[in-house]
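Appendix B. One record, verbatim.
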Amino acid sequence: MNKPIIQVEWVDSSSYSGHPWAAEDRLIQSANEGLAKCVSVGYLIHETDEVLVIAMGYDTGGAILESFFIPKAVIKKITRLRKGVNK
């Protein structure tokens, strides 16, 4: 079975890493600059109402290479790059 390949656009949490101590106005400025915008591409392995699981690769024996779990709450867009095919 060929699994679908998808591109996922999502946002990641971040922190202020300028210094352990920071002025409140610097933290607010950093927060206003926005969260990290991420893009991941991989094989769609599993999907629930809460999470999407993608992977770099898989084999016909069921082994998964480099899986990655993305919470649905942070996903902005999913683009299907290749449909899955059952053989």
